[in-house]
Amino acid sequence: MTQALRPAAVFEDRIATREATLGVVGLGYAGLPLAVAQAEAGFDVVGIDLDEARVDAVSERRSYLIDVPAQRYDELDGRLRATSDYSAVAELDAVTICVPTPLSKTRTPDISHVVSAAEAVAENLRPDQLVVLQSTTYPGTTEEIVLPILERTGKVVGEGVFLGYAPERVDPGNATYNLRNTPKLVAGVTDECLKRTELLFRQFVETVIPVSRPMVAETAKLHENTFRSVNIALANELALMCDRLGISVWEVIDAAATKPFGFLSHYPGPGLGGDCIPVVPHFLAWRLREYGYSAQLIDAAHEINAQMPIYVVQKIADALNDSGLPIKGSRLLLLGMAYKPDVHDTRESPSLEVMRQLIARGGDVRYCDPWVQEVELEGTRHRGVEWSAAVVADADCVVVLTAHRRFLDEPHWRDAKLIVDTRNVAPPAPNLTQL
Ligand SMILES: NC(=O)c1ccc[n+]([C@@H]2O[C@H](COP(=O)([O-])OP(=O)(O)OC[C@H]3O[C@@H](n4cnc5c(N)ncnc54)[C@H](O)[C@@H]3O)[C@@H](O)[C@H]2O)c1
Fold it and tell me: 113 C-alpha to center of ligand 1: Å?
C-alpha cells in the first residue's frame, strides 16, 4: 500500500504503522534510553556502538545504566538489537546520533565522534532517510558539519535525505522527569526535515516543541546548562562571601527563597560535576570567540566553580588544624565520589579533585560511595570502603561531598570526630564545619 504514496507520506505511514525501523548511534547515557523508548513505542530498533562491550551488554540484556534496568529490556519482546556494524544503517528509516562531544583541556569542543558517526551514517545512507543529531554541541554543528557530510553522497538535504537536531535533556537518575515526560526541542534544516523530526519524537515523547532552525535548538540546550552553571557559581560565590561575613550561606539562601517570585534557589557545593554542566557552556563561549565576542559570565562562572574543590580542601585543613592535626598523615574519609546523589557517574566529579589534592598533600585518604566501587586518579586505582560505623570511627575527619540517600538513611558520619559538610546535611554540632 505504501508504494503509491509520496516519500513524505511513506515516512509518515511507516511511522504510524510501526513498519519503520529506527536506529540510534551511541548507546550511552543519552542514546540507550532513547533506543529503549523507541522500542517501547513499538518500533524495531537497532543500536549502533563501536564499544563491543556495550553491544554485548545490550544483546545479552544486561543493564549498565541506572535509567535502563535489565527488566526494561525484557519488556521489549526483542525489538531492540545492537551492533557495531554501520551497514545496519541501510535498514533504517530514521537514525539518531548520540555520540560524545567532549572538551579538550584547552576547552575546545571535540566533535570528532560526531564527524565520524555522520560519515559512517552517510556511507550507508538509504534514500529518504531521516538523520537526527542529538549530541550536545556548539551552535552551527548540524548545518555546518553534518549537512555537508550527508550531501557529499550526492543527496540533497530536504529532498533525498532529511536532517534534524533534537537536543537531549535527560537527567540520569531523576525519578520524576524521564525521556517521555521531558519536553523535547526539535529543529530541521528544511520544513520537511522539521516535520519528520517532530513526527519521530512525537511517537515516544509527550511534548515536542519545534523551533525555527537547528542553531536555535543547539543554543537553547547550551543556554539551559549555562543557566545552571552560572547560578551554581553565584551560590558558590555567596558561600565564599558568607564565610567572610561569618554567616551561614544555607540560611541566607533559605531566607531569600521565601520570596515567592523572581528567585530560584541554587545551592553551593564542592564544585561542578557531570558530563554536561561543567562542559557545555564552553561550547557557546568557544563558538562566540569566532564572532569576536567574549562570554564573560561563562568564564567567570567557570573560575568560581573550579575553585570550589580548593576551598573545600582549605576547609578540611582548617578543621584538622583546629584539632592540632595536619593533612599529612591524617585519616580522611570522603563520602561520595559520584557528582550527584544516587548515580554512579563520576565524570568531572569535584570529589575526585578534592581527593587528588588531599592525597597530593599527604593525606591518608579513603572514600565511601555505595554507587562507585573504584576510581582512578592519575593512573592509580582506589577502591571504596564499605559504609559502616567502623570506617567513620577510624577517620580523623569525615567529608560529606555527595549526599547519597544511603548516607542519610544510615548517618554513621554523625559520630565522626570531625565533619566537613559541603551539602548541608549534617545537624549543627561543635565538630561540624559547613561550607
Ligand atoms: N549524560 C547525560 O546525562 C547527557 C545529557 C544530555 C546530553 N548529553 C549529550 O549526549 C551525547 C552523548 O553523551 P553520553 O553521556 O550518552 O555519552 P556516553 O559516553 O555515555 O556514550 C556515548 C557512546 O557513543 C559511543 N560512540 C562514540 N563514538 C562513536 C561512533 N563514532 N560510532 C558509534 N558509537 C560511538 C561510545 O562507545 C559510547 O558508548 C553528548 O553530546 C552529551 O553531551 C548527555
Answer: 9
